[in-house]
Amino acid sequence: MQELQGTSACVGLALGPAKVLRRRTSPLVRIVQEPLRETSLFEAAVVVAKDEIAQLSERASARDKAIFTFQIEVLSDRGLLDEILSHIAAGTGAAAAVERAASLYAAKIRSIPDEYLSQRAGDIQDVCRRVVDILDGRPREQLILDKPCVLIADELLPSDLISADRSLLLGVITAGGSTQNHASIIARTFGIPTVVLAGPKILTATDGTICALDGATGQIIIDPDEATYARYSHRIHLARRRSVLLERLRDAPCVTRDGVRIHLYANCSGPEDIEKAIAQGAEGVGLLRSEFLFLGGAAPNEQQQYSFYRDCLKAAAGRPVTIRTLDIGSDKSVAGLTTEEPNPALGLRGVRFSLAREDLFHPQLAALLRTGLEGPLRVMFPMIATPEDLSRALAAVDTVRRQLTRRRVPFCSEMPFGIMVETPASVLLAEELAQKAAFFSIGTNDLTQYLHAADRINPAVVDYFTPASPAVLRSLRMVLDAAEQQGIPVSVCGESAADPDTALLYVQSGIRRLSLSPPALLEVKARLMDENVLMG
Ligand code: PEP
Ligand code: MG
Hints:
Structural class: alpha/beta
Shape: globular
Distance between the termini: 54 Å
Bound molecules: phosphoenolpyruvate, magnesium ion
Strand content: 5-15%
Largest sheet: 8 strands, mixed
Helix content: 40-55%
Radius of gyration: 25 Å
Strand order of the largest sheet: 1-8-7-3-4-5-6-2
């Protein structure tokens, strides 16, 4: 038995035989032809690769499609293409030229001090590996699984997870990788327990060796002894039993012991997880982070956004959906859209970014106003700090309404526009903001960060990041009071509401609407239904 420690990328427990993904390293014997011929072979391979990726994209969720859009863009990247062509011109065969350029390019991009960009190195290797396989006449590496397994790999590539039979993936462990790379994002979408950064030792496991992993703590056990095996089996059994019990609460309205009705909504990123959330009993979507649509790097146009938002409403099957306008900047940097800033959390993010970029803001508003005709849609602006921010955002809505009228495009004229309350200024100015906003949604992730001056992604100040602190709870009460005066609804949509203890504190502070990540819905519901919440 050997124990290793990695980093949690998706919670859940797994126990089963290992399947070690060993990527081909030794090339076939390659006959190199003259550069002109190698160039045409390379260009033809790029066309085939783009076509294959487009087909993979058809099977992917809306959010994951962005990954494949990025991969197709890599194959049109002038810098990369020129690098490959210069190797070919110097007499290198096309396949070797792609391998050389890919590793140079991936290393370059990894070294950029931008977390989002450096994590795209895996996508570059993925797409270049495909071109090499096409040139070598090798079948594309596909993850063929024939029985349930814990998949072990150096690093997982997005196409691995899209092409594999995911019902056979008990869990995933990678030696490298990162919690925010695309493969980890896909693993979370599908709820596959995943541990990354386990170190190279994990690759010494052999196929068939039993592996246990705890996706919450990052614990990995290779070849567990009898007692450990029994302990993991028991925990998996208990977790299944608990989810069967919780399942029974799915359709019950969430009412506390003392009769207070709480509305539970879900935080989502696209139609796929909306469907899952509704299946978990969510009463609607309290926060749809529209920025996930933009993560591919290329901004979707009005029509693409319109179809995406319409699919989201469809997935919610008549339940209300709250879509937040683009919230990029700070920790959500997007290559090609955001720029480097000295202090990004206090920089051009959220609505400030949108107000500075009408070319992105107006098409998004147009798509949202059009989608409003299709169902109960609400829209909110992130990072509002002052009433002027809100006035400017609402003025943009008016401008877009006029543009749509001129274009004779029908749109919803009654759509509610609310705000995220996530800056201390918006808490202090809640009375003024409530006069113009149709609703408030309190973002406790950012509110906690800004109230306590504690960077939400910096582990060194994690002790200051306290979403249930007296300062946060007092802010909730101030916002509720201001909203009550104007009769507008308030919800909380920060991740902290997924913690049953914190959710209870929020409800005891007067909050009646919570929006949380779908896997936590039933646990939070169970906790609230078991408590009295009216104090004193
Ligand atoms: C928040 O800040 O609480 C929030 C929900 O927004 P995000 O986490 O996307 O910044
Ligand atoms: Mg926020």
